[in-house]
Design a protein that fits this description.
- The protein has about 300 residues and is an alpha/beta fold.
- The protein is about 30% helix and about 30% strand.
- The strands form three sheets. It has a six-stranded mixed sheet, sandwiched between helices. Strands 2-1-4-5 form a four-stranded antiparallel sheet.
- The two termini are about 30 Å apart.
- InterPro entries: AAA+_ATPase (IPR003593), ABC_transporter-like_ATP-bd (IPR003439), ABC_transporter_ATP-binding (IPR050763), P-loop_NTPase (IPR027417).
- Belongs to the ABC transporter superfamily.
- One of its GO terms (molecular function) is ATP hydrolysis activity.
């Protein structure tokens, strides 16, 4: 059994379906990213996994505990870390007092180690904290008891770019330690950098579930070519090439084939410059959200999804 097992899980609020017949699993030691725009059901799923709300039908297990079994879930929560999207810290107390409280409940064997990486001013009242400092305090409390599973809702929200990268490096290290990470994200590029697999949620339903390499391959590679003499080269006949366009002296196309035929085609010309890069994750996301016009504004980097 994996760290998370979700089976036909549904939460019906009456006027709207929060999540609809979700089924997936997260393996031990895996980093699993969950994507979807606001209202897609991400937070509903997380709150259901933590036993904060009850499913209408179906079920899920978290570290082997059925989310409908309160006693079993309370015991499992000793091995779970949780970082919510909206941190509800008491603004009048210091960060140190917050950590002391959490330590009294679940332990803090890694507190000093984590405070060396994430540096909230724990001696000051939280009312004086920036958004980033509050987020760092939340990360410390989520990991300081050395949990087996950490569930996070938009964990890097409010962190500056340097701290975001430090967080990503930290998460990769946690995977090496065997910690299972399940999180939703509002920064699409970080999913590519740290996740093993990603699930895409749309209106409460799972519309995509792939390992990250497969997901990127679905979008093909972006190829930009400039020939030495400005020769107009037609790559439209190359198997696997599509959307071939010319912009100034540059030929651009999407390539979804094997590399060898591409290199052979390039070798027949006097190539001055070539760039082959992975597709933006936003483009792949639009494969799931932009085909029927239901999402008029695609989620981009730095926006909530």
């Amino acid at each position: 059994m994996g760290a998370l097992e979700v089976n036909d899980l549904t939460k019906d609020y009456g006027s709207v379906l929060g999540v609809d017949s979700l089924s997936f699993s997260v393996e031990d030691g895996e980093i699993f990213g969950f994507l979807g725009p606001n209202g897609a059901g991400k937070t509903t799923l997380i709150r259901t996994l933590l036993g904060l709300i009850s499913p209408t039908s179906g079920t899920a297990t978290v570290l082997g505990a059925d989310v409908r079994n309160e006693d079993a879930l309370i015991e499992a929560k000793q091995r779970i870390g949780y970082l919510p999207a909206h941190l509800g810290f008491n603004e009048e107390v210091t960060g140190q007092r917050v950590l002391n409280y959490h330590a009294s409940v679940k332990g803090d064997r890694r507190r000093s180690e984590l405070l060396d990486v994430f540096t909230p001013p724990v001696e000051r009242p939280i009312r004086e904290y920036s958004t980033g400092n509050k987020r760092m305090l939340g990360i410390v409390q989520a990991f300081m008891h050395d949990p087996d599973l950490v569930i996070m809702d938009e964990p890097t929200s409010g962190l500056d770019p340097l701290k975001q990268e430090e967080f990503n490096e930290f998460i990769r290290g946690e995977r090496e330690r065997g910690t299972t990470i399940f999180f939703s994200s509002h920064v699409l590029s970080e999913v590519r950098r740290v996740c093993d697999r990603v699930g895409i949620l749309r209106e409460g339903r799972l519309v995509g579930l792939e390992d990250i390499d497969t997901l990127l391959d679905q979008g093909g590679k972006r190829v930009h070519v400039r020939t030495a003499d400005g020769e107009r080269v037609d790559f439209s006949g190359l198997d696997g090439a599509f959307d071939v366009t010319t912009v100034g002296e540059e030929i651009q196309f999407i390539y979804a084939g094997n590399y060898n035929p591409l290199f052979q085609a390039l070798a027949r010309h006097d190539v001055h410059e070539v760039e082959i890069r992975e597709p933006p994750l936003e483009d792949i996301f639009m494969h799931f959200y932009g085909t029927d016009g239901s999402e008029a504004n695609p989620p981009m980097e730095g926006t909530n999804v």
